[in-house]
């Protein structure tokens, strides 16, 4: 888009995501798509629930269609935009996460052992005493 967009929530534009495989089309709820509207840009990310169930998109053709976009002056920002793409397979079973500069708030009234346990619980989950 060439003009700053009207990005107030709830969004006035409509976005429809369709998942297709063979001859079947299924609408993906927009609640499952993260939307970032800023300046002249609208970005979409398939996150939230879909990341927990990637099979919903893997191997499927996906269409994302956006209509009704308005600029800041509430004028029509132009024709509908449509993106067609296919989601390839990916493997998350061997994904690793590296944390750096993690800060854990610690209550000043805790002793050193309790503070260390609290930090471990935050990073690794609560521990259970044997």
Structural features, described:
By secondary structure, this protein is of the alpha+beta class. It has helices at 48-52, 112-124; strands spanning 14-21, 24-28, 33-38, 41-46, 61-67, 81-86. It starts with 13 loop residues before the first strand and ends in a 6-residue tail after the last helix. The mean pLDDT is 75.
Q: Could you outline the blueprint of secondary structure elements for this entry?
A:
Blueprint: E1 14-21, E2 24-28, E3 33-38, E4 41-46, H1 48-52, E5 61-67, E6 81-86, H2 112-124
Antiparallel strand pairs: 1-2, 1-5, 3-4, 5-6
Largest beta sheet, briefly?
Answer: 4 strands, antiparallel
Order of SSEs, N→C? Answer: EEEEHEEH
The number of distinct helices, counting runs of at least 4 residues, comes to: 2
Residue stretches low in confidence (pLDDT < 50, at least 5 long) are none
Average pLDDT rating: 75
Strand content: 25-35%
Helix content: 10-25%
Distance between the ends: 60 Å
Shape: flat
Q: Based on DSSP secondary structure assignment, what is the total number of beta strands?
A: 6
Rounded to an integer in angstroms, the radius of gyration calculated over CA atoms is: 22 Å
Q: What is the structural class?
A: alpha+beta
């Amino acid at each position: 888009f060439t003009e700053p967009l009207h990005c107030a929530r709830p969004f006035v534009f409509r976005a429809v995501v369709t998942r297709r495989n063979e001859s079947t089309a299924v609408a993906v709820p927009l609640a499952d798509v993260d939307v970032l509207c800023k300046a002249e840009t609208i970005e979409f990310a398939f996150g939230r629930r879909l990341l927990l169930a990637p099979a919903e998109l893997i191997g499927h053709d996906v269409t994302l269609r956006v209509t009704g976009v308005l600029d800041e002056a509430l004028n029509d920002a132009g024709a509908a935009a449509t993106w067609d793409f296919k989601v390839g397979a990916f493997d998350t079973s061997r994904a690793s996460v590296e944390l750096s500069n993690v800060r854990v708030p610690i209550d000043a009234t805790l002793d050193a052992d309790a503070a260390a346990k609290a930090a471990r619980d935050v990073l690794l989950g609560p521990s259970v005493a044997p």
